[in-house]
Design a protein that fits this description.
By secondary structure, this protein is of the alpha+beta class. It has one domain: FAD/NAD(P)-binding domain (3-Layer(bba) Sandwich), CATH 3.50.50.60. Helices cover 38% and strands 23% of the residues. It contains five helices and seven strands; from the N terminus they run βαβαβααββββα. Strand 1, helix 1 and strand 2 form a beta-alpha-beta unit. Helix 1 runs parallel beside helix 5. The chain is elongated, with a radius of gyration of 18 Å. Pfam families: DAO (PF01266). One of its GO terms (biological process) is kynurenine metabolic process.
Length: 132
Amino acid sequence: MPSVAVIGSGLVGCLTALALGHRGYEVTLVDMRPDPRLADKSEKNLRSINLAVSDRGIRALKFVDPNMAERVLDGIIPMYGRMIHPLNGEPESQIYGLFGESINSIDRAKLNENLLDEIEMFNKGSDKPIKL
Protein backbone atom coordinates (compact mmCIF):
# COMPACT_ATOMS: atom_id res chain seq x y z
CA MET A 1 0.00 0.00 0.00
CA PRO A 2 1.21 3.51 -0.68
CA SER A 3 1.91 5.97 2.07
CA VAL A 4 -0.14 9.15 2.35
CA ALA A 5 0.07 12.38 4.31
CA VAL A 6 -3.08 13.95 5.72
CA ILE A 7 -2.68 17.66 6.40
CA GLY A 8 -4.68 18.94 9.35
CA SER A 9 -5.73 17.06 12.47
CA GLY A 10 -9.17 18.62 12.71
CA LEU A 11 -12.36 16.59 12.43
CA VAL A 12 -12.02 15.74 8.73
CA GLY A 13 -8.27 15.12 8.89
CA CYS A 14 -8.61 12.70 11.81
CA LEU A 15 -11.48 10.83 10.18
CA THR A 16 -9.60 10.64 6.87
CA ALA A 17 -6.49 9.32 8.61
CA LEU A 18 -8.55 6.66 10.38
CA ALA A 19 -10.36 5.65 7.18
CA LEU A 20 -7.08 5.25 5.30
CA GLY A 21 -5.42 3.50 8.24
CA HIS A 22 -8.26 0.97 8.43
CA ARG A 23 -7.70 0.25 4.75
CA GLY A 24 -4.03 -0.53 5.28
CA TYR A 25 -2.44 2.69 4.09
CA GLU A 26 0.66 4.02 5.80
CA VAL A 27 -0.62 7.36 7.12
CA THR A 28 1.15 10.43 8.47
CA LEU A 29 -1.14 13.04 10.04
CA VAL A 30 0.41 16.50 10.35
CA ASP A 31 -0.83 19.77 11.76
CA MET A 32 0.92 23.05 12.51
CA ARG A 33 -1.10 23.43 15.71
CA PRO A 34 -0.27 21.60 18.92
CA ASP A 35 -2.36 18.65 20.09
CA PRO A 36 -5.67 20.18 21.25
CA ARG A 37 -5.90 17.63 24.06
CA LEU A 38 -2.90 19.32 25.68
CA ALA A 39 -4.26 22.88 25.43
CA ASP A 40 -5.17 24.93 28.46
CA LYS A 41 -8.91 24.58 29.22
CA SER A 42 -9.38 28.37 29.05
CA GLU A 43 -8.02 28.40 25.47
CA LYS A 44 -10.59 25.81 24.40
CA ASN A 45 -13.42 28.09 25.45
CA LEU A 46 -12.39 30.67 22.82
CA ARG A 47 -13.51 28.43 19.95
CA SER A 48 -16.98 27.50 18.80
CA ILE A 49 -18.57 25.17 21.27
CA ASN A 50 -21.12 23.05 19.45
CA LEU A 51 -21.27 21.40 16.08
CA ALA A 52 -24.40 20.14 14.36
CA VAL A 53 -23.75 16.60 13.12
CA SER A 54 -26.19 15.45 10.46
CA ASP A 55 -27.11 11.92 9.54
CA ARG A 56 -24.52 12.14 6.74
CA GLY A 57 -21.76 12.91 9.28
CA ILE A 58 -22.84 10.02 11.48
CA ARG A 59 -22.86 7.69 8.46
CA ALA A 60 -19.29 8.79 7.62
CA LEU A 61 -18.14 7.89 11.14
CA LYS A 62 -19.95 4.55 11.02
CA PHE A 63 -18.48 3.78 7.58
CA VAL A 64 -14.98 4.03 9.04
CA ASP A 65 -15.79 2.02 12.18
CA PRO A 66 -19.27 1.51 13.70
CA ASN A 67 -17.88 0.91 17.20
CA MET A 68 -15.74 4.04 16.99
CA ALA A 69 -18.79 6.05 15.89
CA GLU A 70 -20.66 4.92 18.96
CA ARG A 71 -17.77 5.89 21.24
CA VAL A 72 -17.04 9.31 19.74
CA LEU A 73 -20.71 10.27 19.49
CA ASP A 74 -21.47 9.44 23.10
CA GLY A 75 -23.37 12.37 24.54
CA ILE A 76 -24.80 13.82 21.32
CA ILE A 77 -27.96 15.84 21.83
CA PRO A 78 -30.69 15.61 19.18
CA MET A 79 -32.04 18.95 17.95
CA TYR A 80 -35.48 18.75 16.37
CA GLY A 81 -35.71 22.35 15.24
CA ARG A 82 -34.26 25.82 15.32
CA MET A 83 -35.38 29.26 16.36
CA ILE A 84 -35.37 32.07 13.79
CA HIS A 85 -34.96 35.57 15.27
CA PRO A 86 -35.96 38.14 12.62
CA LEU A 87 -34.87 41.75 13.06
CA ASN A 88 -38.48 42.91 12.93
CA GLY A 89 -41.00 40.47 14.28
CA GLU A 90 -41.55 37.55 16.56
CA PRO A 91 -39.12 34.64 16.86
CA GLU A 92 -40.30 31.59 14.95
CA SER A 93 -39.57 27.93 15.61
CA GLN A 94 -38.82 25.73 12.58
CA ILE A 95 -38.72 21.95 12.83
CA TYR A 96 -36.04 20.05 10.89
CA GLY A 97 -38.31 17.35 9.51
CA LEU A 98 -41.91 16.33 9.13
CA PHE A 99 -41.42 12.94 10.77
CA GLY A 100 -39.39 13.74 13.90
CA GLU A 101 -36.01 13.92 12.17
CA SER A 102 -33.23 15.70 13.98
CA ILE A 103 -29.66 16.80 13.64
CA ASN A 104 -27.33 16.26 16.55
CA SER A 105 -25.34 18.68 18.62
CA ILE A 106 -21.92 17.77 19.98
CA ASP A 107 -19.04 19.71 21.48
CA ARG A 108 -16.63 20.30 18.59
CA ALA A 109 -13.48 20.19 20.73
CA LYS A 110 -14.60 17.01 22.48
CA LEU A 111 -15.35 15.30 19.16
CA ASN A 112 -11.89 16.25 17.87
CA GLU A 113 -10.28 14.96 21.07
CA ASN A 114 -12.25 11.72 20.79
CA LEU A 115 -11.08 11.22 17.20
CA LEU A 116 -7.46 11.80 18.23
CA ASP A 117 -7.95 9.26 21.03
CA GLU A 118 -9.34 6.82 18.44
CA ILE A 119 -6.17 7.26 16.39
CA GLU A 120 -4.12 6.31 19.45
CA MET A 121 -6.36 3.27 20.04
CA PHE A 122 -6.00 2.29 16.38
CA ASN A 123 -2.23 2.58 16.68
CA LYS A 124 -2.08 0.15 19.61
CA GLY A 125 -3.61 -2.63 17.54
CA SER A 126 -2.10 -1.88 14.14
CA ASP A 127 1.05 -3.03 12.44
CA LYS A 128 0.87 0.24 10.44
CA PRO A 129 0.24 2.96 13.04
CA ILE A 130 -0.86 6.43 12.00
CA LYS A 131 2.09 8.76 12.56
CA LEU A 132 1.18 11.94 14.40
